Amino acid sequence: IHDTDTKMKHHLSEGSFKNRYTNTINKPFSDVIKWAWNRTKPEPIHFQHADNDPQFLKENREHRTLTWIGHSTLLIQYGGINILTDPHLSPRASPLSFAGPKRLTPPGLPVDDLPKIDLIIISHNHYDHLDRLTLEKIYERQLNNPPQIFVPLKLKEWFLDLGIKNVTELDWNESEKFGKWLIHAVPVQHWSWRTPWDRNKTLWAGWVLETKGFRFFFSGDTGYSQDFENLGKQFGQFDLAAIPIGGYEPRWFMKDSHVNPEEAVLIHQDINSRYSVGIHWGTFILTDEPVEEPPKRLLAVFEKAGIPEEEFFVMKHGETKVL
Ligand code: ZN
Ligand code: ZN
What we know:
Blueprint: H1 4-7, H2 29-38, H3 54-59, E1 65-70, E2 73-78, E3 81-85, E4 119-121, H4 132-141, E5 148-152, H5 156-161, E6 167-170, E7 175-178, E8 181-186, E9 206-211, E10 214-218, H6 227-235, E11 238-244, H7 251-254, H8 261-270, E12 273-279, H9 293-305, E13 312-313, E14 320-322
Parallel strand pairs: 3-4, 4-5, 5-6, 10-11, 11-12, 12-13
Antiparallel strand pairs: 1-2, 1-14, 2-3, 7-8, 8-9, 9-10
Helix pairs in contact: 8-9
The structure holds zinc ion (2 copies).
One zinc ion is lined by residues 124, 126, 190, 221.
């Protein structure tokens, strides 16, 4: 999968990108209407925060920890650095401050309680993953010591326009060093959009973060595809993976770009991960499954398949696990 022939296959001549294993992500407008028309929005449910210790997280450079802040935002402390995935700590996942999907549960850590962030990885430009407010706040807090931000191809310009520097842009299967880490952008099956004019003009990606003794996969948003079997073959095994378990209904509309809990477990198995954490649920209502359904369905898969529950876990908002 490294030869130049397949390497450029996701680049289209008009300057946009496509997936490797499906061409059906671009839904016709009539399908969008059909979904919106028949939509039964789930009931909002507000989750209880876990107790956490921001002071410990701020001072900690020694213990390895994982904190779920909400949605796809994880704080990982490993090897003396603090990593954030798709940081979204704002009240809405929307271009507008007064409309659009509203946060059900406040972020597990507010921006002011974050430790100094060394590394941020961004999967794609959808509003629930790329949040201008959060990124600006983090950047302002660390003007003299800004985090390095890894983004998929063509997304660097968005940051430069905001005056945010220290951005590394990678294509699928490109890698770059960061301190003692090697960071790889890898293909997943999704799409991109921020305005009516920019559909698939910036790339989407999963990220592999490797350092001595630890290999982590952050999938961003993705449908289920051959990409994960490839990833498993390429890297052999993972210590931890963050895989979405929410955002899947209605299936006829969402299946190509969002896995359900059953498919999330297939990814966990395809990539041979020791542990996985379920993300992308319980924070914003973006799709039609009941808000509390994803972890229940995940549990049902384990019971059926005899997989130990702690192998693919979910966390409370704000919960910290020591790895
Ligand atoms: Zn998305
Ligand atoms: Zn999403």
